Amino acid sequence: MKLSIILPVYNEAGSLEELYNEIKGELASAPFKYEIIAINDGSRDKSKEVLEKIASSTSDFKVLNFNKNYGQTAAIHAGIEHAIGDILVPMDSDLENHPGDILLLVEKINQGYDVVSGWRQGRWKGNFFTRRLPSIIANRLISAITGVKLHDYGCTLKAYRREVIQGTPLYGEMHRFIPAYASWQGAKITEIPVRYQPRKHGKSNYGLSRTFKVLLDLVVIKFLSKYMEKPMHFFGGFGFASLVLGFFSGAAALLLRIFNDVHFIRTPLPLLTVFLIMMGVLFILMGILAEILIRIYHEPRGKATYSIASKINFNDTPRS
C-alpha cells in the first residue's frame, strides 16, 4: 500500500518546512510507503522557493507549480490526478491540521471504509455566535441537502480510497463535497474527531465571499445529484406545470367572457395565460438544451481546470 498526501499551498511559506518535518516524523515508523504532493496555487510569497528547497532533499516530496491562483479545489484536483497512492489524504498546509491524525484516518480506511472525514475539535473557542453557530447551521444544511451527515464539511483533512475519488468532477468550491459525491456512488463513509491547531504563520485565506460560493455550489450539486442524467425531468416538470396553469388561466378567461360577459381587456387572465405558456415552452426548450449539454459532458474531453507551470520529482506519468 502507498499513501499520497496532498497539500494545496497558497502563501504558506512560513509553515511549509515545519509541516514537512512533522509529517515525516509522524510517518517515520509507518508500515507503508508514502509521497507528499504540494501544489503551489500561484503563491505570491516565498512558498515556491521553500517547496523547491524541500523537494531537492528528497524524491518523495513532489511539487506542482500553477501558472496562477486557481483555488483550493483545483489544487486538490491536480494532486489527485498526479497521485500514485492507493489512499489519498488532502490536508491544509497551514499547520491547522495535525499530521498525527493521518494514521488515524488510514486506520479507519483499513477497517473497510472508503471515505474518512475529519471533524475538527476545539476550533471555535470563544466564537460561538460569530463563527461556531453559522458553521453548525451550514453543516446541517449541507448534510440535509446532500443526505450525507457530517459535522465538518469544511475540514480538508480526509482520507479516500483511490478508486472512490478518481474521476470525481471538481470545480468551484466543490472539494468539500467529495464525500457526498462518493456516497452517491455507494461509498462507505465515516467521520472521526481530529485535532485543530491555531494558525502559526500568515493569515487565513477564508472569507465571507467563500461562504457564498459554497452555498451556490451546494445548489449545483443538489441539482446534479437528482437530475444530472435526466435534466429534462427537472426543466420539463416546471414547463409542463406552467403549460397546465396557462391552460386553466386561459379557460377561466374564456368562461368569464362567455358566461359573465367580462371582456378580455378587463381581466389580467389573458396576459397571464400568454406568460405561463411562454414560460412553459421556455422551460421545455431549456430541458432539451440541457439534455444536449449532458451528452456533450459525457464525451471524453481531457481538459483540466488548471494550468501547470512546472513539476518537480515527477518521474512517473499520472496514474489513471
**Cα-atom radius of gyration:** 25 Å
The portion of residues forming beta strands comes to: 15-25%
- Domains, number: 2
* Major sheet description: 8 strands, mixed
Name the helicity range: 40-55%
Organism: Candidatus Zambryskibacteria bacterium RIFCSPHIGHO2_01_FULL_44_22b
InterPro entries: Glyco_trans_2-like (IPR001173), Glycosyltransferase_2 (IPR050256), Nucleotide-diphossugar_trans (IPR029044)
GO biological process, one term: lipopolysaccharide biosynthetic process
Protein name: Glycosyl transferase
Can you walk me through this structure?
By secondary structure, this protein is an alpha/beta fold. It folds into 2 domains: 2-226, Alpha-Beta Complex (Spore Coat Polysaccharide Biosynthesis Protein SpsA, Chain A), CATH 3.90.550; 231-297. 46% of the residues lie in helices and 15% in strands. It has helices at 16-26, 47-55, 72-82, 102-110, 128-146, 162-165, 178-184, 208-227, 231-259, 269-297; strands at residues 2-9, 33-40, 61-66, 87-90, 115-121, 158-161, 189-195, 308-312. Strands 7-5-6-4-1-2-3-8 form an 8-stranded mixed sheet, sandwiched between helices. Helix 1 (16-26) links the parallel strand 1 and strand 2. The protein is elongated. It starts with a strand and ends in an 8-residue tail after the last strand. The model has no long low-confidence stretch (mean pLDDT 87). Keywords: Cell membrane, Glycosyltransferase, Lipopolysaccharide biosynthesis, Membrane, Transferase, Transmembrane, Transmembrane helix.
